[in-house]
Amino acid sequence: MSATHLVPRQPTVTPAAYDAATLAVLAAMEEAAEQHLDAIRPHNTKRGYANDWALWEEFHDWLGERTGHRIASTNVTKGTLVGFVVWLDTIKIAAPNSIDRRITGVTVTARNEHGVEVPKAATVAARQALKPLKNDPERQARGRGKAAAVTPEQLRQMNAAVADGLTGLRDRALWLMAFAIAGRSAEVAALRADTIVHVSQGLEVHVPAVKGRPPRDVVVHYGKNPDTCPVRAWLTWHAATGIATGPAFLPITVHGRLGDRTLSPEAVREIIARNAERAGLSVRLTGHSMRAGFITTSRRAGKREEKIRAQSGHADNSPAFWGYIREADKWTDAASEDIGL
């Protein structure tokens, strides 16, 4: 006979329902516990959770653009959380460990800030979706380097593979404008048609303030190659749509008609990445690739640092800007050149 059979079986007892006074004490203890945990949580962790929730909001904006209905961000379900994992992997090109951390940030913020208890089945499913990504060496290597800087040759490849119709006209105008103004994705999304002025030399473009960065006014010259000329691409898109005011670039429905919503920064990044993939480029381009590409290309063409910086809106002492300049200059008057070897 096993030891368990020596223990008398206890009768099943159903716990009594809590009275109102007990429930009030327990609720107060729960609230006090959350306040205590929040107080001892490191500042960097809090900031990380805030960033995670901002990405969660961006995911819902992206989803709303595609479904025509934006659901509340507090709908943290198995479907939305797994969709978030796929979006972070395929659209944001996030590393698996970063995605894992984002799942935690969203669930903690949903509970602590919005009073939403995320079902365990949702987090289990999200991490099941994440598991094969963690076994992929290429995905694990993500986030360990700078965005690839696009080249004029790659822009021509993208032009050759661009889609037909209104979508193709918009996409080409968008990525060439992003390149020509050295624009951040948020800046490209915020451009307005009425502040892009056609003049004899090209375009005068007002780049609006985004995320606390100051606005700037830049000029975009006609290009020598019609396939990569941002001025011609913009004028063609503008003529096809007749947009006079409001957002410079709009979504296009599955039926090929203009939408009435402003493109999100994520949509700008997706358009660039999708067209680079369509063209079969050997590197994956992101929204930042256009900005980096302009700086390196302009520098290799001999343009002065202050002119390039005025176009890109970088601060005088920006490490990122000077990193691009060093990359562009590394073969100019190289130390190993013509030294008698």
Automatic annotation (TrEMBL):
Keywords: DNA recombination, DNA-binding. Residues 145-338 form the Tyr recombinase domain. Pfam families: Phage_integrase. Coiled coil: none annotated. It comes from Streptomyces enissocaesilis. This is Site-specific integrase. Gene3D superfamilies: 1.10.150.130, Intergrase catalytic core (1.10.443.10). InterPro entries: DNA_brk_join_enz, Integrase-like_cat_sf, Integrase_catalytic, Integrase_recombinase_N.
